[in-house]
Amino acid sequence: MTIPDSIRKLVKRFDEQSPAYLLGSYNETQVRIDFIDPFFKALGWDIHNNNDYAEAYRDVIHEDMVLVGTAKKAPDYSFRVGGMRKFFVEAKRPSVSISGDPKPAFQLRRYGWSAKLPISILTDFEEFAVYDCTHKPEENHSAAKARLYYYKYTDYEDKWDEIYALFSKEAILKGSFDKFADAKKKGTTTVDEAFLSEIEGWRQSLASNILQGNQMTQRDLNLAVQLIIDRVIFLRICEDRGIELYERLLKTVKQKGIYQRLTNLFKDADDKYNSGLFHFNPKEKNATDPDLLTLKLKIDDAPLREIVESLYPPNPYEFSVIPADILGQIYERFLGKVIRVDGKKAIIEEKPEVKKAGGVYYTPSYIVEHIVKETVDSLLEGKTPKQVEKLKILDPACGSGSFLIVAYQHLLDWHLNYFVANGGIAKFKKELRHTEKGALRLTTQVRKAILLNNIFGVDIDAQAVEVTKLSLLLKVLEGETGEAIGKNLSLFHERALPDLGNNIKCGNSLIGSEFHDQGDLPLLTEEDVYRINAFDWQEEYAAIFKKGKFDVVLGNPPYGATLYPLEKKFLQTHYKEQSYQLDSYLLFMELSIKKLLHKDGLWGMIIPNPWISNIRQDKLRRLVMGHTAVKQIVHFRYSVFRRVVVDTEIVVLQNGYRKNFKPQVHIVPSEPVGELLEHAELIEGNQDDWLKLADKPINVFLSDAERRLRNKIFKQPFTVDALFKVNVGVKPYQIGKGKPAQTKDIVENRTFDASKKISNEYRQYLRGRDIGRFEIKPLEQRFLRYGPWLAEPRPSANFDAITKILVRQTGDEIIAALDDQQFLCLNNLHVLAPHDGLKNLMGILALLNCKLMTWCLRVMNPEAGEALAEVKKEFVELLPIPNPTNLGHLEKIATSIIKLKTGPQSVVVERQIKMHIRQIDAAVYALFGLTSDEVELLERRLT
Description:
By secondary structure, this protein is of the alpha+beta class. Helix content is 42%, strand content 16%. It is built from 37 helices and 33 strands. It has a 9-stranded mixed sheet with strand order 15-14-11-16-17-19-18-20-21, sandwiched between helices. Helix 1 runs antiparallel to helix 2. The chain is globular and about 100 Å long.
């Protein structure tokens, strides 16, 4: 593309007057106004918000400068799309050598790396350097390290296409910048990984040292270590944000007696912030219990000095720009481990539930944003601040607080936009203040009030609760200055932070105090009581329940959490809409709908999808479909949580059933680059239809036409389970199962397997991959010693039936074969043993292998194309079957196919088989009375 005239003029002016610009007296502010602002304006950016976008969505943030000595503590520009940071630009005066001086490059890379931005720019207009910020920066790196592009101002005309293709607003909106940036992320150490490693090291050294000099219970040790780390991080972040004097923490470690000096800082923070994080005075009324533990500890200097010094340069962390969600990701994984005391040894190990789940899975920020937008934002529309003040937003399993932080940010943005749009600072003097740059922001008092009025959370993990509080408190202080906080303290005796003890609480969301009223409850140990941690919602949030419960319940509840026998018995008694196989996320759904949610309240969470596809969840489906309006389901065709394969979806409900409601169902094919639903397929659901089918699995992704076709096809006189006994095959091995119970050695050595028939107890068995359509073709002969010593021998499968049909379990299509040799089958096959008197198995076999049956499977179970798709037993049982006496034509075709498959193979034979299969499909379409349009609709889902 042609370089704009405005850029040509800038280049010409700089060239003509460069001696004056290169003087040290020509400062950074001047170069920004004269050259850098118009440069990025030519790239399509609204540099000065001339479009009057709301503060939360303006293109460019000119960061408020915080001076620490002579150094700035925030990047000059943050370029954003839809409120999301894309890259930083750090400006320098032209007298600085960008190509040779390593300090500006290190400064920029620290900003970019700490903010987890893959790419950022360093420029003084004379030079323009693009840096890869995915590589951990080090102070001794040269200016050329991680530099991707370097231009002189004289290059702009020739290279304008290249610059525009990467850094124009158009390039961002089209996704080309994100594709380029994503390519830089692979194989690098990110800020969250590096800082997590750092604080895990602190935990180990602190815990070990505290144990040596103090008598501590395991619970107190975990709490003390967490509090000390949280306090140090909080104060260090405040330094980089200009709220605390820079290097104040560092000065405490320069002499002996470090912990005493640190506790003095903590006490000062108690006076200044009034946060439960720093609450030591038992005489002062506070919602959080005072800390009577940590101030008395004896801690050696060495570990404390190492911790504090690692938080200052030459470290790569720039705490002023680390986003709250990144801090949350770090802490979420940090909280996945716990300190176990073994004598005087501190052992760090994964929590049992984390080990079971295979790690900690942090909710991606685009998921959190979408759920908050669909719940919180929708309730804010058309309201006034007085009305918004009454909204109560809850995460009942808040973890490190990611959902509450984003909900709080959306509330802050809404209030700021409201006050600016409805009179500004002239009208709202108590609500708004000017920053040093002249921008408007909410006062600390308003930010505190919003947090206390609107944001609530519960978690069973005490450490997670403290992290949530920490993250929210840091959010209150964003953009504040030490001077403003000090002024409020001296003039109004008002401390900077609220105490969140009444908002964010530790407890078991699912179990109330009635747990302890059970008559047959055994004597509980102290550990049992702490683990169960019964929580009474109506008592803990009495004022909210008095006025009508919570307006929004949101989050990412635990999936498959460990439920101990004591708790499980209680939950099965008190949660009436569950199957016998309890799952924690389903318990949270029932709790929310029946107990927590206001009569018109909104519920938004990301959960696994078996609640709609598992036949056993019929009661929960009836609750949802019959008592709420399903506003939105966003289903993901990819794994949202990258290290674990679990099919998930966002579900947004509104309490209260609404007749004729049409939910929006979105199918997201791959991880989004921009807007979550930008490339999603949209289907209009029918909740009345879902309610009618709630006793069985529901496919919510069917169009109206497909629903009509489903109703027609399934209107048959029989189903598979009316004609066959359906069972899964043998499960040979599992430690502790079988008679006698299997040992680890038996399982690992597959003791009952053999490659030949050793005795009459040994029977040849088949696996899923040993069958195809109309054929059994074992890849190798395998035998199994069959009897009660197997983990699950399943004699009811009737392996000895003279003829039976086998259906492969893995995959998303029906693959069936006829067995007349009495094979055993493993549990990746379904065994269809016919009821007495059933004839024409060959005709039914042909029917099962046709396209229409696979379509029936897919309309019942929406797993087609997914990594772990299965042909589940319950779906096989529900397949519709016409009168078997009408299947004679299909029987003849199936017999021909089997004869062809067992004879000599050739291209001609393969063509004949394909022709016969097409004949079966056509015959079945006619048998079910399908029109040509219906056939086309059916086959479209199978492509």
